[in-house]
Structure formats: C-alpha cells, structure tokens
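Exercise 7.
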Amino acid sequence: MESGDIKNSIAITNCVNKKRSHATKARDLYVSMAFNAKVNFIEKHYSEWYILSAKYGIISPDEVIEPYNLSFKRDRRFLQNAQTQQLVDIDAWISLVKTQINDLNSDIHWHLGGEYWSNIKNIVSGIQIKQGKNHSDTTRKYKLAIQCDTLDEAISVLQQSTPPNPETPQSFYHNNYPTFSGTSYQLWKLYPEQKLDQACLRKVAFGKVKQHKGWTIKKGVE
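Solution. The predicted structure, written as tokens, is:
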C-alpha cells in the first residue's frame, strides 16, 4: 500500500459504554469524546469503516440499532449497574465476529481498546492501532493524529508511547526563522525540510536540552 493510500484499508473501532436511550444509527448511538475523536480521524483517512459492538459484532456506522448494556467482565462498573448490565457471551460473540470478518476482503486497521482486542486478536488479521491509556489520552492522540496529511504518518503518531507529561504550547526561537508558538510536534511538522528530530525538539520544550538545530525556548540561546 502506498503511503497515504486509504482505498485498500478498512478501519474498525469499538463501541463505548455510554449510549443514547433510543434507537439510532450506530455512529450516533455512542456518547463519548474519545469515540467522536476516533470517528473524525477515521472518516478523514479511510473510505470504509465499521464499529465493533459488544452486542451486534461488526456493524456499519449507518445501521440503525437499539441501545444495549453489556460488559466483557464483572468489574466495578458492572457491579454498579448489575440490574441493567449483562455479561457478553464471549464464545458466541467471537464466533459471530469470526463469521462477519469473512465478508471483509481488505487490510484491516483495528482501532480497539484492550478488552476488545484481547478477545479477537487470535482470530483476525491486520494491525492493532494502540489506544491511549485512558479516554482522555485516546482523545488527545486522535486529535493530534488527525492533523497528519497521510495515513502512514498518522499511524506513526498513534503508535507512539504516551509521554509521561503532556506538552503545553509555548514560543520557540530560531535566528533564521520566525518565532513559532505551539508544541514541538507542530514545529516538527511545519519545517520538514529541516529534518528535525521530534524527540529532541520535545526535550527542548521541556528544558532538558538547550537547543536542537537552532531552535530554543529561550531567546538568544545558542
């Protein structure tokens, strides 16, 4: 597949716990900032995508479905909602997904959380796109990746380990370029001809090194 080519790949992302109370298109049923961020990204970079539902398996985003309340494990949230929430029949669900997957004749990029991926990784092909450590981190990663011009570049951003400290925008200085306000990633993306090292720029942003190829966060530092 050529860099940035979306025609030969399908994206599949998972459903989320919070849902609207009435039947609607699958794409509109789920109420989550992380889910919305993933959908916005997927619709930019893929021509075809689906949702992996705990009840319905692999479904089209335009399929109208009823809300449901299912869990893969008996965790704290399950116990809090014990009267309304049911456990997924894992064996039946895996069998359903395995049948549905046979109808998809393309490379698949699985934008799935760990619980979903752990249950299907042994029966599917394709690559898993790593999710953030929580919903906020996943939202952040997909909002960052959507700025990328190609799918390959975006996946590279998504597959990076989450940094321990989120970076805040600030001013970067260079003797031969205008002052730049933003994050080190945005600066790295702005000047590809400089062949900047993204990790080194991040170290500059956090004050771990003074400069990288002339870029500093303190004016006048060489």
